[in-house]
């Protein structure tokens, strides 16, 4: 049996690019690879967390699912940084808007990530760590969105461990602090990148409004996600 660096990833050493685009959904990773990459090759399918490596405008890129929640993102991003020598991971996901100014199909570029998770306890820090994006990637993403004509909002997001929260007022509290949107993975990615001395960025397409009834249809999700994907590929 072939040996791989980790039991969670079937890729051999050298089969994953230095840049990894990471949607949560492995089937979206498959769609991105087949739609945007040249000569994509599936490099892993362990636990159906699909990963593909190909080229975009002559540069090698891997697209791989990251799953849902910080434990899943924590495992996959840690292994990519440490076992596959990946330099930068760009998360491309969806989020629920917490602010009226952040509308359906807007792209949120996460400058920082608040969290209700205890993920940072492992570092034994004498205070609260603030997980932030790599500035170079963030600035380039904002510039690419502007050239594309896509509305991009830069700011703080919330990475929550809880999707169905028993505290019905929790979103109001984060909204009052100016947090733009809520999702479930960014803080773990940013912490792993910081601890590894690597780069990370998260971009999110708004798929629903936490304080409204509107949600994207399947067709609108495809269009909105396409804009975000193209920004990520340009990085």
Outline the structure in words.
By secondary structure, the chain is of the alpha/beta class. The chain has a single domain (19-234), classed as Nucleoside phosphorylase domain (Rossmann fold, 3-Layer(aba) Sandwich), CATH 3.40.50. The protein is 31% helix and 27% strand. It contains six helices and nine strands; from the N terminus they run E-H-E-E-E-H-E-E-H-E-H-E-H-E-H. It has helices spanning 26-36, 70-83, 135-148, 170-176, 186-196, 218-234; strands at residues 19-22, 38-44, 51-56, 59-64, 88-97, 107-115, 152-159, 181-183, 199-209. It has a five-stranded mixed beta barrel with strand order 5-8-7-6-9, surrounded by four helices. Strand 2 (38-44) and strand 3 form a beta hairpin. Belongs to the PNP/UDP phosphorylase family.
Named CATH topology: Rossmann fold
Helix content: 25-40%
Beta-strand percentage range: 25-35%
Q: Tally the structural domains.
A: 1
- Weakly predicted, low-confidence segments: none
Q: What structural category characterises the helix and strand content? A: alpha/beta
Which CATH-level-2 architecture?
A: 3-Layer(aba) Sandwich
CATH top level assignment? Alpha Beta
Order of helices and strands: EHEEEHEEHEHEHEH
- The gross shape turns out to be globular
Separation, N- and C-terminal Cα atoms: 36 Å
- Report on the biggest sheet: 5 strands, mixed, barrel
Q: Strand order across the biggest sheet?
A: 5-8-7-6-9
For the secondary structure, the number of strands is: 9
Radius of gyration using CA atoms only:
17 Å
Mean residue pLDDT: 96
Organism: Lacrimispora celerecrescens
Pfam families: PNP_UDP_1
Active site: 208 (proton donor)
Domain Nucleoside phosphorylase: 19-220
